[in-house]
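Predict the holo structure. Ligand: zinc ion.
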Amino acid sequence: MLLPTPIQDLINALSRLPGIGPKTASRLTFFMLNAPDEISQDLAKALRNLKSETAYCQICFNITAAGREICEVCSNPDRDAGVICVVEEPLDVLALERTQGYKGRYHVLHGALSPIEGIGPDDLKIRELLGRVKTGQVQEVILATNPSMEGDATAMYLNKQLTSSGVRLTRLARGLPVGGDLEYADQSTLLGALAGRQEMNL
Ligand SMILES: [Zn+2]
């Protein structure tokens, strides 16, 4: 059966999203076709604004509102500039902020090293992190990448890169679900992992 182009276009666009196969894409498309106009209009507006109204913090690369060069954490004088918590994704920042137990700053790498997927150091915000550490303001770097193979490899790589800088290098304590994502850890587990962070050894 040939579908009208607008329907096929939306199915194709949705199919490109992670976790959505052609079947789900079709279901969502026909749902929106039959749903009140408001639903598809709200979605279209949210999608349009997603990129145009957001930006990345020029210091830590967390997400910030467009027009704001520096995020709320980086511009808050009460947040300790001497401690940088390195995470993979902006959602990890959100998870750590929810614990209300961390008063330092962040650095978002936007991924983890993965030779299989062809993601190397230059694809992440690693150079920027090394630059921040070089300023001499930093006393501790907490390597809070996910407890997965890629997250561990990234932490190990950063540990190697930063050893000569003389800063204290720590890794979140074990107890986080192995292979899991920081963003899905519950608050008390995350708080415990932060409090029990251990020195990295080469
Ligand atoms: Zn920032």
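The helical segments are 5-15, 22-34, 37-52, 90-99, 126-134, 149-162, 187-195. The radius of gyration is 20 Å.
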